[in-house]
Amino acid sequence: MSSNAKIVLRKKPxxxxxxxxxxxxxxxxxxxxxxxxxxxxxxxWDEKNIRVKKSHSNANRLNxxxxxxxxxxxxxLIELQSEKKDLSANQIKKKLYTSSESTTFFEVAQEFLDELxxxxxxSRLSSDKARVNHVxxxxxxxxxxxxxxxxxxxxxxxxxxxxTRSISERSIVNNLIVIRTIYNRAIKMDIVDSKLYxxxxxxxxxxxxxxxxxxxxxxxxxxxxxVKNLTDNETHARNVWLFSFYFAGIRIADVLQIRWxxxxxxxxxxxxxxxxxxxxxxxxxxxxxILKYYYQCKKNDDNxxxxxxxxxxxxxxxxxxxxxxxxNMKFNKYLVTVAEKAEILKKITMHIARHSFGNISxxxxxxxxxxxxxxxxxxxxxxxxxxxxxxxxADDALDSVINF
Length: 404
What we know:
Elements: E1 4-9, E2 19-27, E3 30-40, E4 45-46, E5 51-52, H1 59-82, H2 89-97, H3 105-118, H4 122-139, H5 151-163, H6 169-188, H7 218-226, H8 232-246, H9 252-255, E6 263-264, E7 267-271, E8 278-282, H10 287-295, H11 317-341, H12 352-361, H13 367-374, H14 379-386, H15 392-402
Helix pairs in contact: 3-4, 3-6, 4-6, 8-11, 8-12, 13-14
């Protein structure tokens, strides 16, 4: 399929509410954008005729610039096509507009974030966009090149995150991982020489600090199950937490999208959002009272068991993500007061349901079965995760020495 160039007004406003003009490079239904550097109000854009309206004070000059830029892009496209090279939209954009010395970190970062959005990885998009913005806040310029990102830059960035933004060691590592990911993309795009790569055992090492995963004990879960005098909102939050826990810590994004039709033959059948894995689990006896609690609101089998997603636009990944995030925040808010009434001192959140299952299971369940219950793709992930909760060998070893 031939490539083409077109002038567009991108629907991503700046802080002043104006929209960027860009040249869109398309190939095989994939697009990439080269920003011209000018922003206008959406009311000043003629979508049908692809030009700036006369209502804009600099309409003639902008339209002249757009025509020139489009003509320039089309000439270069013809030259590339005459070379009979099968290039992607991103490669074409690189050939047209960039050199390895001029492409900035933030240009490659934006392509990375756009890709996350296109693939509907919205949770990661939200986190990584904030981390890219940390780099911008640190260097105070969008003209940061990859050649400038060396060991000294990264060490100063780490100090900035720790001292100025009071970010934890684990979060600092996550910030460095995003920079490394974008740097690796730049190497593959021939933007920067791999010899300048600032990461590695003899340079900047990315090492995850040990973190303590805290889960509830069996007695604490019993307290949660039997606590009295809860409000309706507290009861609902407690029910969703227990539902997750009883099914080995199903993530909240999956819990909220389980429908009544997913339950049949006394089993739960569902597909995970994170990795699209299918899973079938026997319904524990403790789940049935929870199902009975919500059965009165059931209108048909297609309804969600829990109501948070009923008004979500299921064709809009952003709306699903937003409603899931809002629901999680709501549940965590009410779980604070549930814990107080249950006289549990630990902080209870929805994610703690997963840790609690791991804490109580300890080494009672074969690791292969835990991998299946946790829905981990790699058994190594399961081993590393469960090691946070297995203390018996260390406890026995300690007792063997000091109990004399």
